[in-house]
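Researcher: Structure prediction, please.
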Amino acid sequence: MRRLSILALTVTALLAGAPTTPAGAALFAGDPLDGGPEVALGDLDVARDGTGAMVWVRAIDGVAHVVAARFENGTFQPFERVDAGLPEASSQPMLGAADDGRLAIVFVNAGTVYAVVRPARQAFAEPVALGPGARPSVDLSINGTAFASYTSSASDVRLARLDRRTNAWTGLELPADVDPARAAGIGTGRSKVAISADGVGIVTWGEAGHVFARKMFNSGVSNAPQDLTPPDVLGRVSTASDLPDVDAEDDSSYAWVVFRQTFADGGSRILARRQRGTLFDAPVAVDTGDEPVRDPRIDLNGRGQGLATMAGATTGQPMTARIDQHDLFGPGERILAPSVAGPTPVPAIAENNLAIVGAILSSGEPAYVATRSYDADKRPTDGTLSRPELGPVDPAGGFDVAGDRGGNAIVGWVQGAGAERRIVAGVFQRLPGRFVGYTSTRCCRAPLTTLAWQTPFELWGALRYEVLVDGVVVGQSTTTTLALTAPLAAGTHSWQVRAIDIRGQLSRSRTRTLRVDAARPLMSVGYKRAKRVVTLGVRARDDTRKGPFAAGMARVVVSWGDRTPVTSGQFGVRAVHRYRHKGTYTLRIVARDRAGNQAVDERTLRIG
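Model: Predicted structure follows.
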């Protein structure tokens, strides 16, 4: 999944008023992860399996260093220092996340770009120097390969690759630049990278006032860089292009690049171009077109559906446009509210097409974090994520949004000032998925039966369950079974399970019918003994007078007590048994019905 990042921080907040959330999800206001006068958010990413991390800069012994807090089982873990062994100040951390907690992090320390890998379920490795430079970007594929880019001290766009098998970083020999003699990747032309599921990457950057893109294969770059800047758009003459952002589908043949295009008449539009193979489709404008725009972002899921976001340069109002199932952008629309504060809004879309956009807003009041969530074809829902008691949100402190494949998302920002300045994270969490219990309407279960049910879909932490019979809680479980401890009366009962996630949200299974047969089978025993020979005639039946609550016979079993094989039958047994040796034996006759109820006849025999 694409790793979104923004240099400025913001949190998601809903419009003023009581927050609302769509059915099946809830917003949980931000909790501080760290604090201090100098903290600044770098980046946030979540893998498809719900693991991920957030990176930021904090002072350690008076020096700025990079730390990361891993996100596992639905919560952030204590932060860890990433730039271990580097005494100088660090800055500009960026990261990518893949399943099982694999992370790739890049940052700048004393003018050199470093990279760090955390292999799945292992500790962080030591930082590896990539080269002198700044403004790094990184993306990690679902299979564990990563590409990183940065602007070198010579104003070239340099590239590096992380191998998923060796966990080693390798710098690519050639820069991405179309013309190495020109400055590239500087200012608003900073580079961005994305990587597909098969490990093929794409890099986009600004050079000579144009936006370019080219593919990356293993340790090399494509020899066909593409100039994405059109000569004109709808009759308007193009001038400079900048602020490119990129994301790739799982299929490396397809990706989208968005960028800002300015015109000779002084206006600007956000353009999007789709990569097909090594070429790009014609540009499409994705903003509303009624004011200049800034800061485009894009996020795709593995199948290519996605969201582009941007903000009006005059009003500051977030805008968004969505890619449909036909790989076409719908019209741009304004969302949330105009704002005098905050960086661009940031989108995140899941594999099931559930999406969320987060932004920092302010129309004169203290800045806050707002969100808009998209739940399938339902009406979008707005909400507020920041807590006023933590102080105003700092738009310059960093902001990001990222989500997993199920539609859960995390929003990170900076809030407060001075000693009260904090790194804050809020979440948008879906309810546990739908599930059913495993009983049918057919008869019957025993009074002390074991109930079982499906495992609901849930990526963020373990679930606990409450089981209700006839509307009353009869037990709790952390697994998908519960053995009843109090017998149920004979007859028809209803039962249901409530799955509860780590934040107290619950989803209910459908109500199921449970028929209970509480009566033992009727059994008659004809017994005769002559010396060492025992003759038995056993008949058994489930009481048909119980009607629909008679489970029916399962088996009649005779155990002779002398270690010889048992004798059995469904409705009865007729047998003759000879005891070979003297002694005392226990003759045990059990009639069991299909619900597990049983009648027992036990006799002690003394054989002389």
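Model: The longest strand covers residues 128-140.
Researcher: Thanks, that helps.
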